[in-house]
Write a structure and sequence with these properties.
The protein has helices at residues 2-20, 26-48, 56-71, 78-101, 108-130, 149-165, 173-184, 186-197, 201-219, 224-251, 253-258, 266-280, 305-339, 343-357, 367-388. With 395 residues, the protein is mostly helical.
Length: 395
């Protein structure tokens, strides 16, 4: 009983963390969210957990963090490296909380709800603090020194997956219908997010992700005739709204960024420089967070988890991170083959797109971003444990 109480209080701390991240002043956010909510959730989860056996993916992530701690010893600037390790501590505590709370099936929907609250907090902050009469989507991006424009797009990706799987948690038809309608509307709000943030991730990741999930749920098992009719309806709808959508896109900062030449793209410059640094320091890299000492204008990261790990922590750090994604995707496919449950296909699709997404942003040092992957990993393991008991003896 006491473990259950601790678990729900831990979720309350996570909800407070989500609320405080953007909805209050910067000072209150830092003090309350970082120094109270995250450690509080971690401690409560620790005492609420009976079995501390981690998944293989969680082990790989912890191995990445341990290796980062080791490379601290050879860091060129240990004060910069120490700041990075502090961020990793927050990542560890938050990921630990989501992983072990996620091992309790009744808590999984509440954990996904935390991300919905976090997203609503982002929307509220953006609407009240950034969007104003001076904002111009043809030139500006929806972001400031507190809220990164790309972060909005990535959390939109997460919440899209949340509303897609949420019907699995309820037996109420009206609730299932509500979330399915939300998902059907996701291309529209994703387009708005892309236009306002100027994030190319929406076009490169979000739309293909939504299209594949739509196919798996609504078209994969339908008759050819139904597929053809549905395709015609979609084509007609796109034709009707195309002129308006295209006009908005053509004027947007997103279009300007999409048409940018590769040699002019800051990301490409960062990738090339980070790879060169990694090749020069292939074993331990230059130390946690130390890439920014080599970056143009001392920008803090290289815009890719892979190039960042290679530059800062050498080939071992990069390999461990890649193995985590490889194992996750392989495991989802095996679970699907074993159970024939399509939820594992959804997990697999998420894992593949999240792996690609890490090429465009540094996620292993962002507590909210890496913890969502760990939550999905925990959800998959918990659901598989339940599914195994439903299999027939000859299966």
């Amino acid at each position: 009983m006491i473990n259950k109480i601790f678990s729900y209080i831990a979720i309350l701390f996570l909800l407070l963390f989500a609320l405080f991240s953007f909805n209050f002043s910067e000072t209150i956010s830092q003090q309350t969210a970082l120094y109270i909510c995250v450690p509080g959730a971690f401690v409560l989860t620790f005492f609420a957990t009976k079995n501390y056996k981690p998944s293989t993916c969680f082990k790989f992530l912890m191995a990445v963090y341990v290796w980062e701690c080791i490379t601290y010893l050879s860091a060129e600037d240990q004060s910069v490296a120490l700041d990075e390790l502090k961020r990793l501590l927050a990542c560890f505590m938050l990921a630990f909380s989501f992983f072990y709370l996620g091992k309790k099936k009744e808590l999984v929907p509440w954990l996904y709800l935390v991300y919905i609250v976090y997203y609503l907090g982002i929307v509220y902050y953006a609407n009240t603090s950034i969007l104003n009469e001076e904002f111009d989507y043809t030139e500006d991006r929806l972001g400031d020194r507190i809220l990164n424009a790309n972060l909005i797009a990535y959390v939109t990706f997460f919440v899209t997956f949340v509303i897609y799987v949420f019907p699995n948690f309820s037996t109420r038809e009206w609730l299932k219908r509500f979330f399915r309608i939300l998902f059907i509307l996701s291309p529209a709000w994703s387009f708005v997010v892309g236009i306002l943030t100027g994030s190319r991730q929406v076009l490169v990741i979000q739309f293909p992700f939504i299209a594949l999930l739509l196919y798996l749920r609504y078209f994969r098992h339908t008759r050819v005739f139904t597929q053809i009719v549905s395709l015609i309806v979609v084509v007609v709808f796109v034709a009707v709204v195309w002129d308006k959508v295209d006009s908005i896109y053509e004027q947007s900062n997103l279009n300007t960024r999409m048409e940018m030449e590769l040699e002019e793209d800051a990301r490409i410059i960062h990738y090339q420089r980070a790879v060169k640094i990694g090749l020069d320091n292939p074993i331990t890299g230059v130390g946690p967070g130390n890439y920014k000492l080599y970056a143009p204008n001392r920008i803090s990261f290289s815009h890719s988890s892979y190039s960042e790990l290679f530059a800062n922590n050498g080939f071992p750090g990069l390999l461990l991170f890649l193995l985590m994604f490889y194992y996750f995707c392989k495991q989802q496919w095996r679970r699907y083959r074993k159970t024939h449950d399509e939820l594992f296909l959804y997990f697999l699709v998420f894992g593949l797109f999240f792996t690609i997404d890490n090429a465009f942003y540094v996620m292993h040092t962002a507590p909210w971003l890496i913890s969502f992957f760990i939550l999905v990993d925990s959800h998959s393991a918990t659901y598989y444990k339940i599914s195994r008991y439903k299999l027939k003896p000859n299966e």
